[in-house]
Amino acid sequence: MRSLSRRYWALMIMWGGLLFVPGLNVYGDEGKTGATEGKTELFGREARESTPVIGRDPDQPLSEREKIHHVLSRFSFGATAEMIDEVEKIGLEKWFETQLKGEELESRKLQAHLSKLETLTMTNQEIVQKFGIIPKDLSLANRLTTEQRRRRAELLRRRYIPRQQLKDAVLFLAVYGNNQVRETASDFWRNHFSIDVSKGVVRYYGNTYEREVIRAEALGTFKAMLNKQARHPAMLVFLDNFISRATPQKELLAVARKEFAKTRDYSTVLNAIDIAKMKGLNENYARELMELHTLGVDNYYTQADVIAVAEALTGWTVQQDPSKPIEFLFRPEMHATGARKILKVRIPAYPRNPIQEGQAVLDLLVKHRGTAEFIAYKLCRYYVNDRPSQKMVERVAKAFRRKNKTDLPTTYRAIFYDKEFFDPANYQTKFKRPFEYVVSALRVTNAEIVSTAGIHQALLTLSEPIYQCEDPTGYYDQADVWRDPGVMADRWQFGVGLGMGWIPGVEIPASYWEGLEPNNPLQWKEVLSKRILPMGHTEKTDKALEKVIAKYSRFNPKPEQLGRYIVGILLGSPEFQRQ
Amino acid sequence: MRRRDFLSNTGAGAVSVGAGLAITKNSLAVQPKKNPVSDLYPDPVVVMIFLRGGQDQLNTIVPYTDKTYYKIRPTIAIQKEDVIKLNNRWGLHPAMKPLKRFYDEGRFAVVINSGSPHQTRSHFEAQDYMEYAAPGNRTITDGWLNRYLTATANPRGEDPKKLRALAMQERLPRSLRGTYPAIAVPPNLRDIEEVLDLFEDFYSGGDPEALSVAQRAAARKQSGTSSRKSLKSRDRKKEEDGLMSDPIMASGTQTIQGLRRLREVLYGDADDSTYKGPREAPETGATFQEYPGGWFASRLKSLAKVIKSDVGLSVAATDINGWDHHIGMGSTDGTLNRMLSFLSEGLAAFMDDLGPHLDRTLIVVSTEFGRVAKENGNDGADHGHGGATWLLGGQVKGGHIYGRWTGLEPAELFQKRDLQVTTDFREIYADVLRQHMKFDLPADFFPGYTPSEKGLGLFA
Questions:
Q1: Which residues of B touch A486 (CB under 8 A)?
Q2: Do A485 and B251 touch (CB under 8 A)?
Q3: Contact in structure between B22 and B15 (CB atoms under 8 Å)
Q4: Sign (positive/negative) of CA torsion B202, B204, B205, B208?
Q5: How large is the ipTM?
């Protein structure tokens, strides 16, 4: 085990403290790489993906400020007029390159929020010991006194603390983080290697997963991230690989019984006997490893490959006894040793070092061209356009594969500097996911988050609670998944609620209303719409806004009340749904 | 497939009539059923319930006399004494007890070994293909139910009082996405009145077609056509046009219109309807079974109210996630047990609540694939192929287990591991549309697939 001081130092880097290298961003899904079948023009019309803002000719190349706005819309959670000014001063490229290092100092505000979340720096073992154990005397097998029942209920409640703090940290970093490129990248990878902290003991392991897998490598390499997630207890449990094993062995059951005798008071994880009883191969992780994490669905691999990969990864399990570090464990007695053909490549047996059989699979997948194509496609879809051009995807894939490094900053750079990135056809054409919508709304309003429950509730209503995507696809990032008729009502609720101060625990600071001239509501409209929609809005929105203001002004509201109302409406406007 | 094969599973109680048509005692009892409501109400309704994750057929519709079943599922098989026996071959999982009486009344049928011929074992791909009813075809971007709605929409524009298509959940299932503006019902429907008014001017006039046009562009782009180019070459109209064909605007317009109407129906007095359905409705049936708790039942309860309010509902859908039982599916004590009783209790209460309206309401329960025949040793089973489709209510000829069973020996299984698909799911959907919805199915409705003319004989 690493020394405490070294670990502590590493944690400070990842989560808070002086250096601070946060990163988060949300989306992933199975993607569909450019299918070639059926070139027939099925239908007759094209939709305009963007609506023209007053005075903007959609054919004109982006102006410098628009370019900055575009970058801040994609590589950060939303631009404000001040941010655009700031980046303009620094220079766009310089800003981007600095951000890629992820070393910007974080604000005191963010550090203060994070420092209250004790589980962020804890190990899995510490978390389970502190939050995951119900003592034997409180087991339901006993007759409990009222007092004991109360204590038991309290302990059961505490089990949710680690995952609650994880969700809070993700939220705070996205809203207040100064390393926004890292935040958006983490958002992407969090959904690419998605886990659901609602599933059993994953709730205790999510914190180290975010820290050691997602944030640690969001500006690192894909290779490292893939290898880390394949060994992380959260992923091994979420996708069932921890119980996938070769043939049953009676001796193992005996060993397990012994182990269980030692740890029987640990009631919240599958105990050793359960594991020993499991006698089968479980394909779940092997399939998603190829379908979702590397190659893309049915891309290059077959069902035979799924089985072969599952076999190669048998024995990749988790040490879950809370008296020892909870971490990756290779159990040779669960492993099926053998030579296999995977993706048309022969992987030899390693009888003396059987873990190498699974490792060879990961190495093969990292280098596979299908992985580069799929990852590049998804990154372009996330950063550029729901339907990125094949040419651009190819160029980005090439950068990803450069020297087999799978270096992620190199890949993000390939997107940023690509000739298509600033094409006006990509400007303001992504529909915000609920997470992006909520975070950007909190950012443009300088919202103070006193407590997070109201925000998490809103994200749940909008179908995107943090770290709780049931499907291993992660949350999708394409518009057509999110903009069904009916869903806008929930966004409007949130926008108006935030403006009016109805979201519990969230407040727009008084300073936000400074500079509003008394008795001049139309000036307020100008000022506030510049803050929330810095690059302007449509004629239609303008008229509707004036109408609402006129109507509301008749009630002689206090200036701040009217300001709040305008903010709420702007957050619900069609323009604010785009990025 | 031959009709003879298809009907060959009705078991020992079957009497052979004519050309291989087998009828059980139960189904005979159903024959003289009268349809008082469907005569009065012209509109048939289909309620699509999708079980996401790959629902296991073998532990749901149990081949309890098959020795191999008990051999390959030593831990999780449903024991003979626990099975609710339907005939001398098939039985239901005991958690489905609330549905047994519907089977006996001839209002519940199952098509075993049904599903998609596509080999994918990816949930997400299999669901897409099934909900677009176009396996292997990535150019289709309108769901099959949406295609039906589009084809049958009023060409002069829909009566705004009509609520033709609803998903009783936060977002639409893919089967409902597309050209026709189906509405996803937000969970806090009660509280949203104010914002619907507030944002009306911001989102008015959006063209619902824009919703699907964007998706079509997606399909085209994937097939290699540059949308950029088309954007330029096509008419770049003035701002007004651009706005109207903006999918976000369209989504907003539909949100306001649809949810307002739904709120009227659920919370207000829907009798101001200008939709001229027959007014002299018979009393809706007494509630025989109370709705259980939980979100599923409460969605169905709202849905029943919409159906009974007679506001032109044609298609409704809701999903149940979580059928991916790699671990802990269990026999009568695991996750499957819990979920089947959740589902069955909800459905039974819904059907009782609908009363006479059940005659015009068909419930279809589908899943993207079944699970491997052999258990996996983790008390569960991995992704498989053939699965069960359930049909309840409407004019279904229930009390039957339809579909061709091929056995459980390795040689009888798909790729030696999964149940075979002997009934293409499109055959079932085609019958649902043609016979229940009385829809004149266009030849190209299922791209690249023509369902048999005769159909499966699922309906009276």
A1: 167, 170-172, 183-186, 254-255, 258-259
A2: yes
A3: yes
A4: positive
A5: 0.81
